[in-house]
Amino acid sequence: MKSKILLLTIISIVTLISCKQNRTSVHLAKEIVRKQPKVVSYTMENTKMWLKQNATDSSKIEIVTAINRTDRANLSKLDSLVIPSDFDGDVVYYLPFPLQVDYLKDVAKVLIFSYPTQTFGAYKNGVLTYSGPTNMGRKKDKTPLGLFFTNWKAEKTTSTFDDEWELKWNFNIENKLGVGFHEYSLPGLPFSHSCLRLLEKDAKFLYEWADEWILDDKEEIKVKGTPVIVFGNYTYDEPKPWLQLIKNPKIISISVDEIEKQTTPFLKEILEQQKIREDFTETATK
């Protein structure tokens, strides 16, 4: 009898230690070390002149392409570029999403696309884990707004608009309309046929980061994927919003209050679907 009591005591202690370690791991996972630039200000520079001096500097190219919402192939096609005065920070400091949103602390994952700023932010329990530029739907083929969930994904697929268009690292969010985020050319403005274009490295990250849906035997949705929110409107007939950074570096920053405003209408459904996934995962592992 004493040996049984001793064994149960040991198991309880081990379980308690394990739980504490798990909580610690979760806490540590939220702590992301970032390098902040000393100064955040911008100037407008001639593209050819700037590239002549910096074309081989990959870290600068990464930041400049993000700020100008373009990719390396299209960078040289722009007449001028918005250039930061200080390149010493991580790319998230040159993009508008807030680094932490406590309102989202109970949301395991959510991917948010801002139409006005042409950027996205991936949050995990309210902490910005990844951010980058995007080129969304053009004026006559606007990207739909609202709450979506990631569905199926494919490393390589063809567009529903043109079967000659090859889409890499594609993750569908609206199955009937064929809308998804994927790698494709970023000319530096909303230019797609409603999809959300990304840099290749960003598309690869989100491809692995987000969760696919889970279907039952009848091909009906059993568990939805990662929530995706698309919000805001782009001013197509006005200069690109990020050009205003030269006058005011915070002019297009997205506030914590704005994120809360955009997510509040969908929070209940997001948490409900999250619970369904958690219950399914727990049952599947038993």
From TrEMBL:
<keyword id="KW-0808">Transferase</keyword>
<keyword id="KW-0573">Peptidoglycan synthesis</keyword>
<dbReference type="InterPro" id="IPR050979">
    <property type="entry name" value="LD-transpeptidase"/>
</dbReference>
<keyword id="KW-0961">Cell wall biogenesis/degradation</keyword>
<dbReference type="InterPro" id="IPR005490">
    <property type="entry name" value="LD_TPept_cat_dom"/>
</dbReference>
<feature type="domain" description="L,D-TPase catalytic">
    <location>
        <begin position="109"/>
        <end position="231"/>
    </location>
</feature>
<feature type="active site" description="Nucleophile">
    <location>
        <position position="195"/>
    </location>
</feature>
<dbReference type="InterPro" id="IPR038063">
    <property type="entry name" value="Transpep_catalytic_dom"/>
</dbReference>
<keyword id="KW-0133">Cell shape</keyword>
<comment type="similarity">
    <text>Belongs to the YkuD family.</text>
</comment>
<feature type="active site" description="Proton donor/acceptor">
    <location>
        <position position="182"/>
    </location>
</feature>
<protein>
    <recommendedName>
        <fullName>L,D-TPase catalytic domain-containing protein</fullName>
    </recommendedName>
</protein>
<dbReference type="Pfam" id="PF03734">
    <property type="entry name" value="YkuD"/>
</dbReference>
<comment type="pathway">
    <text>Cell wall biogenesis; peptidoglycan biosynthesis.</text>
</comment>
